[in-house]
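Quick one - inputs below.
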Amino acid sequence: MPRIYVIVGHYGTGKSEAAISLAVKRREEGHQVTLGDLDIVNVYFRSREKAEFLEEMGIEVVSSILGHHSSLDLPAISAQIRHSFFDGVSTVILDVGGDKAGTNALVMFKSDILSVGYEMIYTVNPFRPQTSDLQGLIHHLDGIEYVSGLKATGLAVTSHQLRETTPAHVMRGYELAAELAKKRDLPIKFIFALPEILTKLPEGLEGELVPVGMYLREEWM
Amino acid sequence: MAKILMKGNEAVGEAAIRAGCRFFFGYPITPQSELPEYMSLHLPKVGGVYLQAESEIAAINMVYGAAGCGARVMTGSSSPGIALKQEGISYMAGAELPCVIVNMMRGGPGLGSIQPAQSDYFQSTRGGGDGDYRLLVYAPASVQEMVDYVQIAFDKADKYRNPVLVVGDGVIGQMMEPVEFVSKPAENLPEKDWATTGTGGKREPNIINSLYLDAEKLERHNIHLSKKYSYMQENEQRWEATGLEGAELVIVAYGTTARIARSAMDNLNKKGWKIGLLRPITLWPFPEKGFQLLDETTKHLLVVEMSMGQMIDDVRIVNEGKRKIHFTGRSGGVIPSTSLIEEKILEILERSE
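Output:
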């Protein structure tokens, strides 16, 4: 199994929710897990908001050098993350900020990531206006690959309509991901969806099914 | 057709463009920067102009200029940025210029924090600018409602020749929700025959101005404005009422806080309590007509705000001493929890038993 997962994508496609959900799943499978929140673009709805919950589960969370404060608007990522890269055991999930702008923060770790080996997962959500078609998806993927100097190795379906999500909504993302997969010769590595939706998806789909906890969405939202 | 997922700030931008807004002047500030970003990307595609001004003060004066030419124009900011725009807002109210201003509120006073708040209620409804003026103020509670009210705001601004303020907070600006854009026909709007569009040598020049050196002339202008505001008070109140019938206690909350209050209300009503919710959608005019619908059974009003208590003043005014008024809330960028509201309600009701 890969040691480093880099979760990238267009702004608002569901990267942080996917990163947290994957971290939880890997932890439940018994792995030592580190979640690195590299989002220094937008302080709202970042995975570090859930640090306390994740740490209680035994997941290490690395974000700013000054701690997980939700309102710290500083481009200061803790070098602690490198320890997890090189400890030989941790599964590291990197939650990268959106678009090319967010990807800038990844560049400082490029050589480390290349030396350890990685999966870079590009999230596909057709309900975001800029990634509703193949052209938009490719535009953002190209930008992210260009800035990071890393190549995507797989796709993740993060297609949803929040609590109104149906299996058809997820399948629309899957079909678009399948088109992109064919065009760029990439596998679909993950399908992220609410647990009750995952059980209703057709059989034989490509990619690991990961239940989404809607961790970043408060009960009243 | 499935809805699309948009953040509140992006949705405001798209709704404005669909409402015919072709000019946006602003300056970035967390937590509303996605709005100018959206406008900078999309306005040029529809022949519009996005301009990042050198300051908020410059931006609001550019809005004055565009509005004076009869264009649909918007600016947006967050609390301290809106504070800087107050002079221009008063000038626009004085010169009777329509525009839409968006405030995604953050914690204050001063530079405050970058987290959500509702502590600009006084600023929105009492005005930080000078003179006898009023703004129509909408406070949507979801991304979809943001979309719907941006369209309404442009129409009302044109109808009344007055600036209209749409207030959200950091959560609504940043939160992603499924939305759809259903275009509604604009109201029967008057021609902008007052706008400075060039005389073509065929008429006297139109003048956009808020300066009256003759005191009696200015008084007449103030009486004219005041009549307009009275008409708005009579015709523009909006609110949403839930579970008023038989309610022992009614929560009064707007925007994001109303959503948290609704969760608290549902949790308690499931346990057999009778709690209602009155959500002002217009902060000015304050929906006093909604309060006339309160049931005789209701002995308590609980005001919940993301501030130290500002809207509570308007609740006191419309309540006229009839019911006991209580308050809870958080400030500085802290979001109140459902349990905070539930505990406060139980404390009130158990004490009064």
